[in-house]
Each structure stands twice: as C-alpha cells, then as structure tokens.
C-alpha cells in the first residue's frame, strides 16, 4: 500500500514506522521544518531540548515500549523531581502526599478531604463514570470548598480561563489517576526518539518531507486515491491517508461543512518561553502558579531534573501558558511579552534580574489543548471520515486523556492495526 501521513509528530511517525516495517510505502508530510509536533525541539548548549516542557510517567507504557523498541531504553531515566505552589506570595512545597496535607491553608478536616478525594481518583479505574460531571462541582462536593479554592480552582482557571467551570471531571480524573511521582526523560531529549523513527523510516525507503503545509485533501471517486495538495505547489496521491493534524485544520483542508462534528470541539493555544539562565530561579522542577493575577500558568525549571552541565552550564526555565488565540499573551510580540512577564518572576524570586537571562526562545501553537467539557465525548469524531481512504488520528480522539506522547503512540498503533497496516 502507498500510505501517506500528514504530521511528523508522535502519532504520524509511529504510524509510519509500523507501516513501513510491514512492507508498505510511506511518505510523511510535515508543515514545519522539524520533527516532533508539539514535542519538537530547539538547541540549548548543543543539546536538543523540547520547545514545550515534556516528560513521561512510569504509567506511560506505550511510550516506554517504543523507546525500548528503538534501542533507546538505556537512555531513558526516571527522576524524582520536586513540585511547589506559589500562592499568597509564598513558595509552598507540594511534592509528597505529606507536603500536600500540610498545605498552610488546610485545616485538619480540609487535609483529610483533600487526601481522601485524591485517593478515590487514584483508585477509580474507569474515569468515564465522570463523563457528565464538571470538575469544579465534583471537587467542591468531595474535596471541599477550601481545597478547591486554594489548590484546584486556581489551576483550572489558570489553564482554561473563563471555561474552567465547564471542564469535565473525567479530564481531571485522567490527570490524577494516570500520573506518578517519578518522571522519565531521555538523555539528549525526546528528539532522539523522533529522530530514530525518522531514520528507521528513511532506511527502509520511506520519506519524511518538511515544509509541506497541506492546503487541500480530496478523494477521487468513492474508492479512488486520496489526493493532497500542499502550499508549495506539490501534490501527492495515496492509496490510504492518515491525518494527525488538529480537527479544525483537517476540516478546513478536507472542505467539510460547518455543521460537521469535526469542527465542534474547541482548542486553546499554547505559548512557552525557554529561558537560558546563568543561575537557578526556583527551588523546584515544577511550580504551579495559584495566584489569579499572574499572566502565566506554570514555571518549570528543567535543570532541577536534568543537570545544567548537560546544557553547557545553563539553567533552563520554561514559562508556560494555555490561552485563547485572541488573548494578548498569544498575540503580543515575544520580546514585549517577556518584558511583561519579568516583574512576575521577580515576585516569585525577588532577587531575579533580567540580566540572568543569557538567551531566550519563544514558541506558540494554535491548537494545543482541547477544552474537555462534559459534552466533549459526544463530539469526538470517529477515525473514519467522509472520505473512505482518509483516516483521522488526532489528539482530540484521546479520551479522557487529551494529549501526551504515550497516548499518541497508543492511538497510532490502534489505528494502523485497524487499517491492516501493521
């Protein structure tokens, strides 16, 4: 079979890897000039580093299995990084269960309710029982008003803004149930995984082509080939096409009508700074910002997990956000945006000075975080599309999880198996 794949992220590259080993011809078309999709990398001190913070959990069996399959198992290391919360002008340890129940705003009853509700969510195996519930309503009832207002609500509002009250409890269950205290990272970055997939495809006669922004996808007749036209004027014809782009991008390229379900789920954009610093800023790997006036969601000091010597002695700090694409934090020129963020970094660490920043990078993606409401599940499109030779495999079809490298690998393998490509 002559297989085309749109997107060289985790889903597309895994599908290409499996299909070409099964004897099919594979061509992957990627709009960007780099591998990895939302896990794409930039260079820090001569070492690839993800544009948006990435790690995996002990529970991410599909990604771990793929890493081992590619011969990179020895490069995957698990760490026990620290977590904090910034609230009330203070840094609060929030790494262990003991830290959590000692949260300064909790009474003994609050601590018990917080711990008990979290334990329930870890114990429940099927999160779809929460499909019809909103997260904040469930949390106020079971975790308690204090734990919700101090811990959960600031996080949900920081991530989803005005849509926080609509977020599904099934989505939050997945965030708690599937996560582990240990985090995994590949020596040299996840770029090594995606490069190994690309190299494996290349070595077997497949192609990964960059700068191929897709303009249209059509099918010739009821059972004819899928035809892809790209912005650079090139075109391709495939026996079968797998599309891994976000739903709206696929709907536009495929010319689907406005009332088609594929348009209906909503996405937030993501923005992320990577700061290369000459010293550390926070005493944690991950710092949640639980102050409503802050313009960003989280600060992640990657070199609290991976030694700065890996990056030429630079300390690496991410400043991450999920925002509407019309929001000023998405549309502002990056240099100006960083200037506006600096005073908030100084609130976290009063000693912080802009001179600590030796170099910075900025990335943004328009479709990075689906807004998972109780109605979301009913709006998830199937993998089959109105074109019989075109299959959709995108992050919105990962439920109740909504993205993540391991879930992308699992979905890719489910799709290729269903199409007889493995």
TrEMBL record:
Fetch the Gene3D superfamilies from UniProt.
FAD/NAD(P)-binding domain (3.50.50.60)
Lineage, highest ranks first:
Bacteria, Bacillati, Actinomycetota, Actinomycetes, Kitasatosporales
Q: Which domain of life is it from?
A: Bacteria
Q: What is this protein called?
A: NAD(P)/FAD-dependent oxidoreductase
Q: InterPro entries in the record, alphabetically?
A: Amino_oxidase (IPR002937), FAD/NAD-bd_sf (IPR036188), Zeta_carotene_desat/Oxidored (IPR050464)
Q: Which organism is it from?
A: Streptomyces lannensis
Pfam families attached to this UniProt entry: Amino_oxidase
Q: Which residues form the Amine oxidase domain?
A: 11-396
